[in-house]
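Tutorial, part two.
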Amino acid sequence: MMDPRRPSTYYEDRDLKRDSLRKLKAKPNDLITTLKALKESKTSTPATKKCAEDEINRLESEKYRHYSREFAMNAVDEILAGNNEQAIEKIKEALDHKVFWRVEQYLMNTGERIKKQVFSR
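Running the prediction step on this input gives:
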């Protein structure tokens, strides 16, 4: 029987827990990659493609919310710690993250249009 009062319960398994957390964080990215491959597959039906696209959008928005919350918590932690310079940097990082996520699709579309205009001749 495991005794929760023993330090080994909290400290000896710490590296194993960190590894499992890293693996868990990598799973949504792997899932998104798999869904994109399924969506691009020639043998997929239109319904499968639509379901894959919906799931990709859901996972992307979940990922956005997760990282937004993480960046915001980092900024708040720095503010509470009294590190004004670090807090400003963390707020800038959070804003950069939000801008990147909202502008990325437009940049990709503009890049595709430029590519077509330049190389279509």
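The mean pLDDT is 82. In part three we will examine how such features are distributed along the chain.
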